[in-house]
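Need tokens for this chain, all 189 residues.
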Amino acid sequence: MTENFGDTPEDFNLDDWLDQGSRPQATVKVYRDWSLMGELVRIEEKITAADQEQDPSMDDVSGEELREQYQAVLDKLAESAIEVTLQALTNEEVRDVAAGVPEIEQKFTDQHGKEQVRMKPDQVAVGDALVAEATVSPKLSRAQVTKMRQKLGDGPTLVLYQTATELRSAGKVLPSIPFSPEPSDDSRD
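Here are the structure tokens for all 189 residues:
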């Protein structure tokens, strides 16, 4: 149902209209048990070998049995997942979050070959802080995002950082508007 926020530009109630607004969001899965990925690869190799076997012996595990094992591992992997919903951050929120992250020393060699030190924002901490700020459900703290990244690794948690970044540009381009095709001549009575 479309709500009427005013019939004329003079009557339009911007506050009511904004109250019903929302930011772009996305839900992603983060998997806790990445050791299962190696197991999936090993079973895939066995499936390939079993499918190529011309004369399987009685001791060989069938491709069908291996596929059942593969599905069981996939089920375990799915059980280890957590769904995290993130929303787009505004430029002001990004600026404020980044400003609140402590700087770290960065050593570099200048153009004269002299070692220099400068203070620079800790980019890893900025990323953790931005992901934490973007989470909607479950709401994660910076410490929890950092702990998740450190425990699971950069690869398994990369989906959070990529999604937070992608959501910053989401909503800048409208999606294609679906249309209903005209009925064909055959459908007329």
